[in-house]
Write a sequence for this structure.
């Protein structure tokens, strides 16, 4: 006998005369799924009593290795379902009043509607306060358990969930269990990812003061409140040319900063060229997969007092704050500026004080010409070295500049503390 190509010795031979069968007892039991072959050698060519033979004394002929059908059943599933606590789409998660738990198991879950966990088996805390479960639904094939909560969870709230198995028995019909009857173990309070989106801002027109001309303008934009230094253009402008007014898109903001490196503190009577910022950009238009990105602050600040030799910032610093799209670790941006400014990119300082042009190939950015404007494309990672708050918290803050460099000084560095440029 060979089992998976390895010899398995025969310890006993039993002949059943009427059934005309010969049963071999093996040293080691064959497991489900193993390959088995058997061969037989007739001891002699005579009428040999030690051979397989019929009642008339005729010996069975020997035969070479022959495949054996393996009818050994698969072992019973004895592994209980385990709660999955990692992975964006598999860890405990909640959206509104629906809290979903995913389980890891080789079998489907038992979804018998008559026998399922009781609502009271779960403890859900929202910002530390109990939120009772009103219904439990088990999805067998997806191996998920969905809890319906008394009160819908809102965006930003912290949520935990715990489960108490009803009994120590291994097959309790009122427990979370797989099709083989293995009960999922109890688990203590476990963090739940809150996927509830922030509510849309339905606030009516709000009067804000713009620093461009100190005029009062109504802003119907659905975005977070802006600072009084915001220079947003409150007209129905379409700065990124997508055919939709910027004021109706949370991820697009147009502004008219003063054409002066010290525009924030000395606006004077300088011209105000238009600037448009797009968060979640795909070549200047909104990426349909960038849902949730929004511009919450856009303002002009004075350029630093010391800059690398040859660097000019005609608009000073343009500082912005955005929330990144759900499921992304970084956000792509496009900044539209007047081509007449002659700038060569969007420049920010890294942790060493070095000025970096994010709209350049080494940083996967670019500068493109579009409708007599320059489009500066760049990307910033939430919590990365160019995110000013340094935290992966869903908010990207970036004070940077649309700057130009004199070609005659390419390669030079600044003596100032603000660092060199690349």
């Amino acid at each position: 006998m060979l089992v998976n190509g390895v010899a398995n010795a025969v310890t006993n031979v039993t002949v059943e005369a009427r059934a005309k069968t010969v049963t071999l007892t093996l040293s080691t039991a064959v497991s489900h799924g193993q390959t088995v072959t058997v061969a037989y050698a007739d001891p002699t060519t005579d009428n040999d009593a030690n051979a397989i033979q019929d009642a008339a004394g005729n010996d069975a002929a020997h035969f070479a290795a022959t495949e054996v059908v393996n009818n050994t059943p698969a072992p019973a599933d004895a592994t209980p379902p385990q709660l999955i606590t990692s992975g964006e789409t598999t860890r405990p998660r909640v959206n509104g009043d629906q809290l979903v738990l995913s389980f890891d198991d080789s079998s489907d879950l038992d979804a018998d509607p008559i026998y399922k966990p009781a609502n009271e088996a779960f403890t859900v805390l929202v910002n530390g306060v109990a939120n009772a479960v009103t219904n439990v639904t088990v999805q067998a094939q997806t191996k998920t358990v969905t809890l319906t909560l008394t009160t819908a969870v809102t965006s930003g709230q912290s949520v935990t969930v715990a489960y108490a198995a009803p009994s120590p028995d291994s097959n309790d019909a009122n427990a979370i269990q797989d099709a083989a009857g293995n009960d999922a173990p109890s688990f203590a309070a476990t963090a739940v990812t809150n996927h509830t989106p922030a509510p849309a801002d339905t606030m009516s027109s709000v009067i804000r003061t713009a620093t461009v001309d100190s005029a009062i303008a109504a802003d119907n934009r659905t975005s977070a409140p802006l600072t009084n230094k915001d220079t947003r253009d409150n007209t129905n402008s379409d700065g990124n040319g997508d055919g939709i007014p910027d004021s109706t898109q949370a991820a697009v903001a147009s502004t008219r900063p003063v054409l002066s490196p010290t525009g924030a503190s000395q606006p004077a009577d300088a011209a105000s060229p238009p600037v448009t910022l797009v968060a979640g950009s795909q070549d200047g238009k909104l990426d349909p997969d960038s849902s949730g990105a929004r511009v919450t602050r856009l303002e002009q600040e004075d350029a630093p007092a010391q800059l690398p030799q040859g660097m000019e910032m005609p608009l000073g610093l343009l500082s912005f704050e955005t929330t990144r799209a759900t499921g992304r670790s970084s956000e792509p941006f496009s900044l539209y500026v007047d081509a007449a400014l002659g700038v060569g990119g969007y420049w920010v300082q890294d942790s060493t004080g070095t000025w970096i042009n994010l709209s350049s190939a080494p940083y996967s950015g670019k500068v493109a010409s579009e409708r007599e404007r320059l489009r500066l494309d760049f990307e910033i990672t939430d919590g990365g070295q160019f995110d000013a708050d340094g935290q992966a918290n869903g908010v990207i803050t970036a004070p940077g500049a649309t700057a130009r460099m004199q070609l005659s000084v390419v390669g030079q560095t600044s003596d100032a503390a603000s660092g060199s440029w690349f």
